[in-house]
Amino acid sequence: MSKKKKSSFKEEPLKEKNKYSKTSKIFLAIGFMLFLLFGIVLGYLSDYYKASDEALAALQTTQTVEVSGEDPIIFRPEKQPEDEIGIIFYPGGKVDEKAYAPIMKQLAKEGYTVFVASVPFHLAVFDSNAAEGIIEDHPEIKEWYLAGHSLGGAMAAAYTNKTTQQIEGLILLAAYSANDLSSQELPVIIIYGSHDEVLDVEKLKENQKNLPLGAKEYVLEGGNHALFGNYGFQEGDGEATISASEQQEETVELIHSFIHENNK
Predict the structure, then answer these.
(1) pTM score, two decimals?
(2) Coil, strand, or helix at residue 113?
(3) What CA–CA distance (Å, rounded) separates 245 from 233?
(4) Using an 8 Å Cβ cutoff, are 180 and 210 in contact?
(5) 246 CB burial (10 A radius; 0-12, 13-18, 19+)
(6) What is the three-class DSSP state of 255?
(7) Closest Cα partner for 181 from 161, 167, 165?
(8) 135, 161, 208, 247 from 165: Cα distances, Å
(9) Cβ atoms of 98 and 73 closer than 8 Å
(10) Rounded distance, CA 72 to CA 147, Å?
(11) How would DSSP label each residue in 176-232?
């Protein structure tokens, strides 16, 4: 008598079930990892240095400076010169753009119309072209200067490097240019504090070759990285021996002299 072969119809569904079970676990694991990564990135991007009460108070219009807008924030002097000069400012990395209101207001008092760019997640790297729209929207401005603090300064330099629009000068606060601007006839000024421990001074020196001949560099004695704005102490920074108002006043004087000399 021949032996009947055992049917395997019960084993196949079991194998298929195990196969789908393993696949589901893999997809669940990948989904969990992506969710975790998204949470970490979102947490990083939503954590930033917020403007102090003093900075928020500087957003109020006064008799000498009109403050308006949010993207960008605009500081207009009461008496605007015939040859209106505009300064576009890129905020530092993970710093609330409103934190720069005090120093921007001081610049406006000197007769400049100042535009503070509002960038995604407070990181100018996500919108290095922020100046483009501002320039197009304000044809009344005769001359443009780009400025930025830290990462914002690097992005202002990056935009200057690729734009076809006329930029009269570049102002870098605790920043340097990673882009080669050496062949451009562009006045550049770098300002940073002697107690700045966030700025990589060695890289600043290495990247001097990227700047046009005649670029100016000033070190503010007693100043640090964060005092260009009003957002409190920055992690990793050195302790300043001067106040924020002192650092900002000296910075405004240097910027005003820089622009004045360039416009003789």
Answers:
(1) 0.84
(2) strand
(3) 14
(4) yes
(5) middle
(6) helix
(7) 161
(8) 9, 10, 23, 31
(9) yes
(10) 14
(11) --SS--TTS---EEEEEETT--SS-HHHHHHGGGGSPTT-EEEEETT--SGGGSSS-
Where does the chain have alpha helices with state H?
11-46, 53-57, 101-109, 130-137, 151-162, 201-206, 244-262
- Which of 160, 145, 53 minimizes the C-alpha distance to 102? 53
Cβ pair 91, 44 in contact under 8 A: no
**Helix 130-137 and helix 151-162, axial crossing angle in degrees, nearest 10:** 60
188-193: strand order across its sheet: 65-68, 73-77, 113-116, 85-90, 143-149, 169-173, 188-193, 216-220
Q: Which amino acid is at 119?
A: V
Ordered per-residue pLDDT tens for the chain, 264 residues:
445 555 544 555 656 656 667 777 676 667 666 665 555 555 555 579 999 999 999 999 999 999 999 999 999 998 776 568 999 999 999 999 999 999 999 999 999 999 999 999 999 999 999 999 999 999 999 999 999 999 999 999 999 999 988 899 999 999 999 999 999 999 999 999 999 999 999 999 999 999 999 999 999 999 999 999 999 999 999 999 999 999 999 999 999 999 999 987
